[in-house]
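U., I forgot to send this yesterday:
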Amino acid sequence: MTVPAAFGGASKVGQSLLSGAERRLVARWVGRVPRGLETYHLTLLTVLWSGLILLFGWLAQDDIRWLWLISLMIACQYVTDLFDGAVGRLRDTGLVKWGFFMDHFLDFVFLCALITAYYLVAPAGYAVWFMLLLGLTGAHMVHSFLSFAATNEFRIAFYGIGPTEMRIVFIGINTFIIYTWPRYYETTIPLLTLAVLLGLVYAVFCTQRHLWRLDMEAKAARGR
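Result:
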């Protein structure tokens, strides 16, 4: 009888610049998470953070300083996302596949909320750029999940850049917008979209080359 492969989504492949510091942080504090706060509570809190981001983005149309609270929501989502899996493993909750599905689906919801908030505060005339940006950032997530389906290895960090580093980028974007709004949109939005596109092209190129090599190695093994 064939033994099914272990679920690769239970662990992540790849190291980001801050992975080591994060592991030490989790190891030190995961045991202090209140017993009434379970892994699924932490995962589902992303719904709250996303809703508040939409609210603050709407309010920022009249006062751009509301973006500071969007940065706070990014930090809150980072904390809950960092500890949800660790709490589940420590307490042996058993929600491995549920956690994988809900965690990453809600990551996409959170991303949509962020881009929607940026669209709300942007000057008129940038709808197409934000539509492209949403599609491209979503494509990065599709790339990760298709790669996972093909390899059973879930890679979320590429060349030292992972979700934590991207959250820092978003907080930096918020700070930049607060101090320059509404200037520079005519150059920053197209440049940001281009950067996301180039990153996607490079990631897809590297992944397809890796999968091609795996296929050829499997073909050679069958021929022996």
